[in-house]
Amino acid sequence: MKRMQHVYLKVIFSALVIIAFAPDAWCLSGNGIAADTLTFYDGRQFTVIGRFHNEENYRRFPQRYKGVLRDQVWEESLSSAGIAIRFRTNATLIAVRWSLREIDPLSKEAGSIGTDGVDLYCNTAAGWQYVNTGKPKHKENQFILLRNGDGGYKEYLLNLPLYNGVDSLSIGVNGTADISKPVEKYLIEKKPVIYYGSSIAQGAAASRPGMAFTNILSRKLDIPFINFGFSGEGKFDLSVASAMSEVDASLYIIDCTPNSKKEIICDSAIKVVRLLKEKRPLIPVLLVEGFYYEDSYFNKDGLANIDDKRKELRKAFELLKESGIKGLYYKKGDGLIGYDHEGTADGVHPNDVGMLRFSEQMLPVIESVLKKKISKND
Description:
Oligomer: single chain
Largest sheet: 6 strands, antiparallel
CATH class of the largest domain: Alpha Beta
Radius of gyration: 21 Å
Number of strands: 15
Shape: globular
Order of helices and strands: HEEHEEHEEEEEEEHHEHEHEHEH
Number of helices: 9
Strand content: 15-25%
CATH topology of the largest domain: Rossmann fold
Structural class: alpha/beta
Number of domains: 2
């Protein structure tokens, strides 16, 4: 999903922001919670994960990549997919305010929760447990995520929107509560996994941000993921690979066949892998095939088209291995979203069922790769 920018609506949007924000504050009071009992803190003062730069924003690329990336990729990169905030608090009341980069100019309202919303997780004895979702309504939003907590110190994870950008975000807690950067190192101390792909990787049809398969994998593996999924634009770009190589990652994953024509896949994949291996020879690279789209079973040559893309990626893998590239791995696309044909929202993009299945298929592969070491002498 790509959003259109309409400069001429900025003045109208500014007025809507003022009008739209007032009901949120009223809603807090109307539910027995006075807005003035909350103290809000800029989310940037806590620990921001899921990005590879330290700019004071929630964008996936730093400003210096504007003009380096293709324009379409740069525009997609302004979304906050995969970015999250880690914090610790003993608050009995937790709220969030967030300002979206843009809203649909036709509806003048925010879109889905996955596209524009946020969701909160708390670390428990069983791992990360979902708490609540901040539902978007307008460009400026406010939502109570926890109303009557027990007052004990807990570690939290707040996932940001998958398809919209966030201009500002603050976390509100009851006035007597403490809130700080996390004490525990969950999702912080390990080297990140970078996942480069299409809208499927970006999380197009996830019901909420935490259900994108990269975010699911991040929680299960206790490893931060940097989401380089770009809707319609995951095309083996060397500029994206160059950015990936800046990061001392634990693993690079390349899943770009869905957006790429079969004619370019082999050559482009070879160039991307060679760049990564020249810059970071000890970091493993995992190539991932695309799965069959649902209408492919009914369209003439539909399966054959995806099979042809797979063959080109496999060819690149074999050629790279033959040339002496070490630490290169391959994941077939069969079964990534199951076999019952119920794993997508639209025949292409995984729904929550598909996202869970995708993560379950990828989990053992990633764990296996991460256990292996690449020697400088290999």
